[in-house]
Amino acid sequence: EGVIRLLVQEVDRMPADVAGLYGWMLDGAERHFGQVWTRAFVEAIAASRSGWRESDLEALMPVMSGEAWDPLRFATLRRGLRAHVVQRGAHAQWDFAHAQMRQAVEHRATHHRRDLSAVHDAVGRHLLALRRDDAVHESETLVHLMRGSDPGARLAPVVCAGFTDSHYLRTHLGTAVYGFFPLRAMDPELA
Predict the structure, then answer these.
(1) 158: number of Cβ within 10 Å
(2) Residue partners of 85: CB distance under 8 A and separation at least 6
(3) How far, in Å, are 8, 146, 158, 173, 176 from residue 167 at the CA level?
(4) Quick one: average pLDDT of 97-112?
(5) Where would I find the beta strands (DSSP E) of 19-88?
(6) What is the pLDDT, as a whole number, of residue 162?
(7) Fewer C-beta within 10 Å: the chain N or C terminus?
């Protein structure tokens, strides 16, 4: 009877909406695993399109949190978030199980006046440091450079004869453009 009463009290404390439940869960994670570490982890994932490999998080977490990488702390935080963080995809990326978690993290960042463009800047710098043939580098770099605010991460259109792109690019850039390339990673002769 005492256990049931305790469970009912806990359920009564829980928010009634999904966003509130995610916020409540994130508050608990911050208390248990540290606010800075937890925010760095969930904001890195929220900024991603399909999560990050553990090697990416190992590079990003110290930059974003100011704390050394700790694989045990990483594992306990992941387990603390339970089924809300899953590993999936061809590159075994850690991602949120549901889009509402991503929205809740973005909402919390806005509420706490945290600028997620700084997260995109950190991610962009990390991705530029990867080998060019790295699959995550190839698919994610442009997105994070565009969403970031780093003035040194300007993008240059790359004109490729024989390729055509969307009507929007042809109309607004006046040329057939195949893609964009980060200037800082570009060969100086091409820039």
Answers:
(1) 13
(2) 45, 78, 94, 95, 96, 97
(3) 58, 20, 16, 10, 9
(4) 91
(5) 85-88
(6) 44
(7) N
Work out the number of other CB atoms within 10 angstroms of the CB of residue 137. 18
The CA distance from 17 to 9, in Å, is 17
Radius of gyration of the chain (CA): 20
The residues, any chain, with a CB within 8 Å of residue 133's CB and separated by 6 or more, are none
Are 178 and 162 in contact, with CB atoms under 8 Å apart? no
> Which residues have a Cβ under 8 Å from the Cβ of 51 and sit 6 or more positions away?
45, 87, 88, 89, 93, 94, 95, 96
Render pLDDT for 146-179 as a digit per residue (tens, 0 to 9): 888 876 665 555 554 444 444 554 555 544 444 5
Q: What is the pTM of this model?
A: 0.76
Long-range contacts of 63-71 (CB under 8 A, 24+ apart): 63/122, 63/125, 63/126, 64/40, 64/119, 64/122, 65/36, 65/37, 65/39, 65/40, 65/41, 66/36, 67/34, 67/36, 67/37, 67/40
The pair of structure tokens assigned to 6 is 């305790």
